[in-house]
Each structure stands twice: as C-alpha cells, then as structure tokens.
Amino acid sequence: MGRELIVVMREVWDTRDLTGAVLNEQGEIRTDTVPTRVEPEDLNALEAALRLQDRDGVAVHVLGIGAPRSVDAPREALYRGANSAERIEADPEQLDTATQAALLAAAIRRRTPPPALVLVGTSVPDSDNSLLARHIAGELGWPAVSWVDSIEEFHSDRVVVRRSVEMGNEFLELPLPCVVAIGVALLEDDPRAPRPAKAMLKLKMKKTEIPSFTPASLGVSDLGSRTTTLRVRRESVPARMIETRTVDPEDEAALRAMLEAVRKGE
Predict the structure, then answer these.
(1) Residue 224, class by beta-carbon neighbours within 10 Å (0-12 exposed, 13-18 middle, 19+ buried)?
(2) CA angle 115, 55, 189 (to 5 degrees)
(3) pLDDT digits (tens, 9 = 90+) for 159-195
(4) Domain-by-domain residue ranges, the chain?
(5) Do the beta carbons of residue 34 and residue 15 sit within 8 Å?
C-alpha cells in the first residue's frame, strides 16, 4: 500500500449572493447566470490531506468529475498544494451518487500502488445526502467513517480520527485503506478550515495538464442503466415576507397584545 491520499473535489452551484431567479421555467438551473464554486466541504477534506502532507510527507492526489464550468475544482486543489490531479469525463448533473461513486472507485483502483486513504467532504445540502463517501467505500470494499473533525494519527496500517459527539469527542481507529468523510467546518479557526490558494502555485500550475479518463476507459459502461435516482427538476420556494411591528416596551397592553398574536400565530 502506498502513502498516497486521494481527495474527491466537486464543483457545485454557488447560490450565496444571487439576486433574481435561479431556475428557469423548466425547473432547471440557469447555467448562463448562476456561477459555480468548489464544494466547500471538499476543501475541508483537502485541508485534512494537506495537513498530513505537511506532517508526514504523503502525496495528495485529487479526483474530479466533469469538465469545469466556472471554476476548475481539481486545479484549485493544485493551487493549494496537491501533488497531482485527474478528472473523469462525465456530467455529474446526470449521475446519481451511486454512479459517481462507481466511477470514482474505478479511478481509485487504477492507482499504483493503491492509496492508503480516500477523503471526501460531507456535502449536506447536495443531492448525495452526504453518502458519496459511503458509496465509494462500498464499491471498494473498504471501511469508512463519517463526520470526522480531524485525523489524529496516521500509521502504515491504521488511522485514528476524532469526531464530535454530544458533550465531547470520540476517537475511532480504522485499518488502512479506508474512506474518511470530513465534517462541516463552522468556525474560522476550525482545523478543517481550508488554506487559501498560493500565488506561486497558481503561476506554476495554471497551464499544467490535468489527465482525464472516460467512463469506458475506467471499465464503467452504460451509465444510464446504473443511474437509478435522478433529479428531474428543482422548484423555487417563494420568498417569505416577514412583517415587523414596533411595540413600546413600556406599554403593557401592547406587550400583552403582541404575546397573544404570537400565541395565535398571527
């Protein structure tokens, strides 16, 4: 088993600061106006791998699916310190989680020597329901662990991870190779929070060729029959209008009326 780590990097729609309609009349993303970004939780997974690279000198290899739209997720990983990257030529919008996992697992199997660890971000709002890592582990026949805060120990045959539980932390040991899903980083000083891209690496890696593979070359054929769960459309939720009322805190009758309105759900 090699000392290589693999990180899955995805490109997702960026709906943080949009104004106006996000969907067209058919319930599809307006690709002409909606930008994309690297999946934030995959950047957290990349940071966990890069910390092991800094500490133990392991190599970090990145896998992506699909041609870049607004951003090139595998290249963004190179800008942050990943050693190498590859992409699979398939449209993730047309694949369910299980089919994406089959493609990624096939790409992982062809690595020589086999990697010690595969890291994936925990994508909460995405259609995969945070199960991509588990599907990859199932395809590979490897153990897996989810919602990991940090990788505490990394040995030749095992890894120890930490994750938060109610009222504390728990430490779990898994044999290598295995799949680790890194949890959501909520604070700026969270150890999972990703490092920024480096200007020097941007200059160096801007035109670096990123090899790509077709599903057929990976031995995965007939993606249509593999994909059983496919999003057919999205639907916007009307913006909620919240009425505000100002109540004089010294007016006892007004305060009682406000409490009564809240009780009735008005």
Answers:
(1) exposed
(2) 105
(3) 999 998 888 999 999 999 999 999 876 666 676 788 8
(4) 4-238
(5) yes
In this predicted structure, what is the pLDDT of residue 189? 66
Q: What pairs with residue 145 in β-bridges?
A: 180
For residue 148, the cross-strand partners are 182
CATH number of 4-238: 3.40.50.620
95 alpha-carbon distance from chain centroid: 16
Quote the CA–CA distance of 135 and 140 in Å, as a whole number. 9
Task: Give the closest residue to 38 by CA, choosing from 123, 105, 103, 106.
Answer: 123
* Segments of the chain with pLDDT less than 50: 126
Residues in contact with 171: Cβ distance below 8 Å, sequence separation at least 6, in sequence order: 152, 160, 161, 162
For residue 215, whether the previous peptide bond is cis, meaning omega lies within 30 degrees of 0, is no
DSSP E strands: which ranges in the chain?
4-9, 11-13, 36-38, 59-65, 84-88, 117-121, 144-148, 150-154, 158-165, 168-175, 178-182, 212-213
Q: What is the pTM of this model?
A: 0.81
**The tokens of 196 are what?**
């920024």
Q: What would the two tokens of residue 5 be? A: 């780590």
Spatial separation of the C-alpha atoms in residues 212 and 66, rounded to whole Å:
9
Closest CA to 110 of 4, 26, 188: 4
* Pair 176, 158: CB distance under 8 Å: yes
